[in-house]
Task: structure prediction
Amino acid sequence: MQFPAKFKSSESKLLLFNKIHPFLILSVFSLFLLGMTHPPLKKIDAIYFNANSIEEFKQSEALILNSLNNFPNRTDLIWRLARNHFRIGKRTVDKKQKLSIFENCLNTAKKGIQISNNSAENIYYMGLCLGNVSLQRGIFSSLSNRGTLETSMQRVIEIDPAVENAGPHRFLGVYYHVLPFFLGGDSEKSIHHLESAVTLAPNFYENYFYLGKVYFDRGQYSKASKTLKRYLQLAKTIKNDSELPKQVDEAQDMLTQIRTYLSTE
Result:
């Protein structure tokens, strides 16, 4: 049976569509997947940096966990999960819960390191959370992990010293300051690392707080005064640090003492 040319044309189009229809579906599906090749890191960070409670940090955590279902080996998701654990741990009051959260942080960061041993952020949070686990477990645990803490932070400095606003330098600066001399405490090393932190992250408030504190304890009052005043300026812009009020009070107290010391000279 013969059809008019216009019907032949329509029939040909239908046959052609039937042939390419599966490929159209596959192409649309591929485009959908293409849009899902990157987890919503900006959204995760936006929630995290605006969070001011455990509940709000858990919102960020839920988004990370959901993303990890699709991207289980993304180290940039894993260290963000460790970061969330750390912040929640710092805000948790119950000691057992606090220890458990820091242990989760530690194990999460270790998983990221297993995927990539050059993930500076995961190594950083591994050291940071190991330090807090050690503090929760007591002095003997802290002493036994000294070598690991130093080695991990030195490794981060080798890879990327600017991680988390010069976090590894800040950590080592505080570490060498609080550690007793006979166990390796060293104020010169402390100042070196904290001054390096200020150089790498000149607008991060905590770098100035800890550096000013070391200057103060060493009797370098002019430097301490200048550094702590800069800290107080930067601290005014911070809204989601639960330890900030205590730090601000301590900084103001040191400045009061410095004014007294300098006025009697």
